[in-house]
Prior knowledge:
The chain has helices at 17-20, 35-43, 47-55, 63-75, 79-90, 127-139, 142-158, and strands at residues 94-106, 111-112, 117-125, 168-181. The protein is α+β, with helices and mostly antiparallel strands. The chain folds into two domains: 34-77, no CATH class; 87-181, no CATH class.
Amino acid sequence: MTCTDPSRTPPPPPSSAAAGHRTPGSTAEPSHPPPHLRSSSRTHVTARDQKHLLSGKRKNPPKNIAQKLANEVRASAKPRLQKKVIKEAKNRPVTVRTRAKIGYTNSASNTTTPDPRMRMLAKTMPATYASPLWQALEDGDEAEALRIIREYIEVEYIQDAGGNNAYTEIEITDIQSMEFDF
Length: 182
């Protein structure tokens, strides 16, 4: 027996593949698209291009696409967690490893090193120096970061040894490498 009542028309066919798997009256949510498809609308980079970049089929994207993807990664990288980790790191000691020319000047005895030597130095700075060092590195102020490191080496490493060392100042030049372990 067929129903000829126009008010009881059959439902329209599903508009998407995910909707086609649901039965009328089911409460199942449609599955979420993969992250590269969700971000393609925000970055205006096609999902196909993003998929090829992620899978390694395309290794060198154009600069504008690379910039858009980098911005998207930064925006979705859990900023609260990053802030928490950075805040904790600012209150911990930091190990500085550097290879640079280091020279000494002692104002009490008027002696200097005639030619600074290339030295490898690795020291763990206490949190009192780590916090300003972090701030200088975040601001991109390399001169201030170098001043903080130099001050630490002078005060904690050389001058605390006593004697004429209280008047010793150091000069750090020709930095070949500098690493920070927070």
